[in-house]
Amino acid sequence: MMMPVMTLIMSGTNIAIDWWGGHLIAAQAMQTGNLIAFITYAMQILMSFMMLSMIFVFIPRAQASAVRINEVLDQTTTVKSPANPTPFADTTPELQFDHVQFRYHGAEDPALQGVDFDMKAGQTLAIIGGTGSGKSTLVNLIPRFYDVEEGAVKVNGMNVKDVDLDELHRKIAFVPQKANLFSGTVRSNMQYGNDDATDDEIWHALEVAQAKDFIAANPEGLDYQVEQGGDNFSGGQKQRLAIARALIKDAAVYVFDDSFSALDFKTDAELRQALKDDEKISQRVVVIVGQRVSTVADADTIVVLDNGKMVGRGKHAELKANNETYREIVNSQIREGDEK
Questions:
Q1: Residue 275 · residue 205 · CB < 8 Å
Q2: pLDDT tier at 335 (50, 70, 90 boundaries)?
Q3: Rounded Cα distance, 273 and 262, in Å
């Protein structure tokens, strides 16, 4: 009722002033300029009262927002570093899921169950499945964003629950589904992955991520300004820059959560080949979540998920011949005669 009532009062006051002022002007008891000034001052006073009334609308909104914000600020995380963490041993990179089952808080059914694989240094794991099959949930367990219900997730042979979280995160380079860039320069964005990265290391990471060409084409080079959220780049360019930022980090496991989705097929293939040819990345474990069969086809191991269950594991040719779920995905994307 606030807005219509205030509008009615303002309009009624304006009409009353005009009516009474008109009579005074007709009787030559007031000049027209005085009437206009009176109307202006009256409207300023009424607008002030209107703004004051709006404050009483904003106060309950602010109170409700403050309650929600404080609920978030007061929330304590259940994922914490152990009291006596075990340090990582100087071992070769490895990633293992040992019969993992995971359930979101309050959910009746597990989001993941029966996930089991073991990846060694130099191997690439690809994860594919339909929307909502649990692909992102699976990779979120690697940096221990959530704790598993059953089984164990191991990085370099260590259960992620037994090591310090900061040390675990230093072992993992993670590229989320949505590429996030920050206001600043290309150089400052790349150094989020490695504070001590040199220009040569940045250029090398950009080259592997297929981002060197469009950055080098700009006269500012690494000083090219990045707007908040990377809004001055296309979707594919943002993804490649996010990938380059992860590649700068010297990690044991590199996780790409559907990070090639905005790339065309040619750039996708060139980027995956560059990852294989890179001396550092080729000695690490690479995890790729993909929707396209072409993105995952040449992986050493492909895990097929369906409604949170691991329904297949193997190479492309093997799964295509023996796994119905994977074959359905292939047939939905590739026409007959398009694939060898």
A1: no
A2: low
A3: 17
Q: Domain spans of the chain?
A: 2-74, 94-333
Half-sphere exposure of 140 (CA within 13 A, CB side): 16
Do the beta carbons of residue 288 and residue 296 sit within 8 Å?
Answer: yes
Rounded (10°) angle between helices 2-26 and 32-74 = 170
In this prediction, residue 340 carries a pLDDT of: 45
What does the alpha-carbon distance between residue 102 and residue 138 come to, in Å, rounded to a whole number? 9
CA atoms 6, 9, 15, 21: torsion sign: negative
Return d(Cα 39, Cα 172) in angstroms, integer. 68
Q: Could you give the 3-state DSSP secondary structure of residue 9?
A: helix
For the chain, give the longest Cα–Cα distance. Answer: 101
Tokens 């329904």 identify what position? Answer: 311
- The first and second tokens of residue 262, run together, are 């905005």
CATH 3.40.50.300 assigned to domain 94-333? The reply is: yes
Q: Given the structure tokens 């010297």, which residue do they identify?
A: 250
Distance of CA 130 to the CA centre of its chain: 19
For helices 235-248 and 265-277, give the axis angle rounded to 10 degrees: 10
Average model confidence (pLDDT) for the chain? 90
Please report, rounded to a whole number, the percentage of residues in the chain having pLDDT higher than 70: 98
Of 302, 340, 307, the closest CA to residue 323 belongs to 302
| Bridge partners, residue 179, by sequence | none
- List pLDDT tens digits, range 162-174: 999 999 999 999 9
Q: What whole-number distance in Å separates Cα of residue 97 and Cα of residue 142?
A: 9
Among 170, 115, 192, smallest CA distance to 148 is for 115
pLDDT digits (tens, 9 = 90+) for 64-101: 999 999 999 998 888 888 889 999 887 889 999 999 99
